[in-house]
Design goal:
heterodimer, A: alpha/beta, Rossmann fold, eight-stranded mixed sheet, globular, B: alpha+beta, four-stranded antiparallel sheet
Chain lengths: 248, 85
Amino acid sequence: MDDAMTAGTITIAGGGGDQIEAYYAGPAGGQPRGGVVLIHHLPGYDRWSKEVARRFAVDGYDVLVPNLYSREAPGADPDDAAAVARARGGIADEQLVGDVGGAAEHLRGLPASNGKVAVIGHCSGGRQAVLAGCNLDLQGVVDCYGAYVIGTPAADFPLRAGGLEDQLAKLSCPLLGLFGAEDSYPSPDQVAELGRLLTEHSKEHELHSYDGAGHGFFCTDRPAYRPQQAVDGYQKIAAFFARTIGAS
Amino acid sequence: MCTYNTEHATITGSGKGRAGWVSLTNATVYFDHPVHAPADHTLNIDLTGAGAPGERIAVELTASSARELVAAIERALAKVPAALL
């Protein structure tokens, strides 16, 4: 059967060996393929994140979405878990790196894995994707409008997140960045600074800022959705994945 | 954009939600993307007690309706004899 896939929540070993939830989506059959760790956005392990995972599975990849809030609110609805995580200041960077690392290892252990893994995230997940790329052995990073990759949050910033400027020299793989030119977090100036630093560190990268789009333009269930820019963005992601984690 | 802003308040009272009536001890208030309301951003309030995450009482209000609610609360409190407060 063409286009068949398997999808559902499984348990994987996350950071520190903790057992955490993760949504798996992958094509049926044993053809060699790369893996994608999809980092969910601040609203959590939600329906939209799982829809995006299935999209990449249709493109031929094994995809894992680790539930970053597994420890904070096990078994809770995604929005309830996100509320708990937000009230506690979000997820620590070290925990994020551990969970993405666990997801990457799980993907590399699947029977059809070609050993290559990329990471993608949106919004807070965009920053976390870059963070993962700077601390793990990966083959590709896709940063979709991640705030505070560049820039220092105000002193009263409620979440545990800061700029990654001092980590970019450690980036282990090519980076694709997709941004809205009308976004303020990250601003066009911050996107330009990201490009400058990646060039300075001789890191392969490709950054695109879309006119007519702001933050969250991939989110189909929000007024911020911009279909033209999202379709083009998905084409760029498909080309990037084919190049960095494709079967050949 | 994601504002990330988050304000906290310690509260005393009760609320009724999925778990029936529960005691409330904390409020988290933030203006950010809603889960359900038809807007890009809303003023979101999570009222919680000692219960499980699913026992929170949550609302997502447009900015103007949040201000209307604040004003209504202030009007209601202003009409109460001080001895009752």
